Each structure stands twice: as C-alpha cells, then as structure tokens.
Amino acid sequence: MSEILFLSHRIPFPPDRGDKIRSHHILKRLARIAPVHVATFADDEEDARHEAALASVAKSHCLVRRSKSLTWAGIEALVTARPVSVTAFRHRAIARYVARLLVTRPIAAIYVFSGQMGQYVPASFTGRVVADFVDVDSAKFDAYAEKGRGLRGWIDAREGVFLRAEEARLAGRANVSLLISTDEARLFKSRLPHSRSTRYAVRALANGIDSMLFDRELVGREPRVLASSGPRLIFTGQMDYAPNVDAAMRVIGSILPKIRQSFPDATFHVVGRSPTPRLLAHHGRDGAYVWGRVPDMRCWLKAADVALVPLDIGRGVQNKVLEAMAMELPVVLSPEAATGIPADHGRDFLIGEHDDALAAHVAEVLRNPDRAGALGRSARKFVVEQASWDAALASLPEIIGMATSSQPRGQTDLSRNAA
Fold first, then answer.
1. What are the residue ranges of helices labelled H in 174-241?
2. Which of 219, 222, 246, 221 lies closest to 143, judged by CA?
3. Is residue 212 a contact partner of residue 194, using CB atoms and an 8 Å limit?
C-alpha cells in the first residue's frame, strides 16, 4: 500500500495558531487517505508534550526540538547563501529520518507543509511532491523591507530575495504548489521566473474552520475579560509574529484612544502565545491587557464584544477572523485582514481602510446591539455554510494523487525523540 511523508516546520499539535491549525487538519485528512509518516519540529516544551497526539495519527514520526538560535541560523545562511528561515529548520536528524524512510517504506507522495521543509525532498525521489506554501513568505519580507531601515531593512530585503528563489526552486520541483487563496496563488505565480523548460502547477487550497467546535453555546465567558466593565475588544494570534505585534500596537497607540473618546471604559485584550516585551509593557495601561497563551480561545472570544483585526500585512486567510466569526462575534478589520475571505462587508463583517474608519465601525457596533447581533449571526452563517474543513479539503485525495482508503494502520516509530 502506498504511504505518505508529511514534512512540517512545526508539530501540528496543538492546533493553537494559524499555521498549526492548517497543518493539523491536513495531516488528519491525509491519514484517512493512506498511512502517514511525519517529520517535524517542536518549538518548545509545550509543543513537545503533544508528541503522543502526533503518534496517534502518524504511522511513524520524527520529532526534533528546535534549538538553533536565530543568530546561528543567520550565520549559516550567509555562509551557504540561503534564506535564514530555511537554515533555521535544517537538522541532521530530520534528514536521516527522511533518507531511511524513503528506502524502507513505500512512500508514494511527499507533502511539504511550508517552504522551509522543501530542503528535505531529495532530487532522487520519483513520487509525487505537493508543496503547501500557505502564503507567499517572500512577499512578506519584501513588505517588511519597505517598512524597515538600516540593517533590519537589509536583512529583510535579503530574506525576500533568497526566499523567492527558494520558492521558485521548490515550485519547479513539485507536482503541485498550494496557496491558501486564489489571490495568494495568483501573487505566487506572478513572482515565479518564466521558463520554457519549467512548468508550474499552482492552485488554491483554502483554510476551513471547525464550526462545531467554535460554537459560543459550548463554552462560558473568560472571567478576566469580564472583569473589565466597559466594552471589550479582542485581538488573537501568535504574539511574537511581527504583523500581529504591529496590529496590536496600532490598536493600542491609535485606534483604542479614538474609541475611548466615546467609550472611556473600553478595553483591548491581546490574547495569544509568546507576547513580545514591547506588548507586555502595555499590560494594564490605558485600557490595554496582554494575556499570553490561554488554554481555550473560545472563552475569550465569547467574553468580548468586538474582534478588532487591523493588520497592515496580511497574507492568505486569517484564522483569527474565521474563529471570531464562528463565535458570532462582530468583526471589524482592515482590508489586509479580510484577504481571501469571500464574506460581505456590511453583512458579515466591517472593513475599515484607516484608523478613523476602524474606530467608527467599532463605535457603530457598540452603540447598536441589534446591529452587533445581526453581524455576529451572519458571520457564523457564512462560516458554517462556506468555510468548513470538510469542504476546504475535499480535493486533497486528488491533490495527493491517491484514492481514499479505510485500511487500518499500525504504528511504528523510526526516530522517536530525535535530537
């Protein structure tokens, strides 16, 4: 029986951030198609504690604790003329596991989740290769470089150039390249070099949402949010990710003060793992609260009145937006945050082009509970009908080149706890 190798830059458990939510659902869907072997990294001890969950899905796995510092990855990138984000995920244990697996198991397809892991696909592999880039990383670094200055700007510009070359290399190697939306796929294809000898197959594979899990009827409200007496705004995400940090700081520095002119008791709650010192410095000041990692984001969303998502740089589809919509929370967001979500402004969420417009939309929702309720109900209806994971991943068996099989699978472990 044919088997699959799944390469992921982060362990797909727990599904508590955007990339891990996508990889989690894709891995589980692939496991319904054929036995899956997984090579992946744990960012920290919390990630590593979920190895048993990974083992319950994978036929075998290699989980490596990521320990290479960003400084060392940068030095290695300069020496090898590669992107820093590729050298950061270079590890001998993963390479050995992949090499041994391809010799000992009937691997018919390799699913590469995130471009950093394309380095582990050997040139000699003759099976099917699917490269899931999710979004266009090189374009993000180009955008960072435009905003940056000095050494930081140079580093981001270099990363954009080298990542673009790596994306083109992997796209040329893959049988199909996946992006999270049609807009992202179009952007990705426009940045590939034109060549008569290389044909690129690029298509969209959208994210979904588990609307049966993200249901406000299933959870209570988080007491720490309810302790704030006035209107409660929320922003969720991985809070050491630069666009998320910038969005939260945009609220704290500009949008929240505008809102508090009309609603002096309004508070803004930043919820998500690894908040930066820059954000933590604002905790408890001028209506801003920074909470860090939480066990169940649904409780925090249910306790809020409005989800405010003013991203300046948005690639692909924002899970934070879909989760808030599924929880019937009115969502006010920037055009960048709405990218790839075919919902309607004015019916399913409210889009603001600038800080004044975003603040005005929040005020509109806070002043009119009927309007807020209608937005929330329409948002959930959109998610339930158009954004389920089953619908999003229906084409995965065809993409991977395999028919669905219900054959039971045993589990072996070729390299448990490699380090």
1. 182-190, 223-226
2. 246
3. no
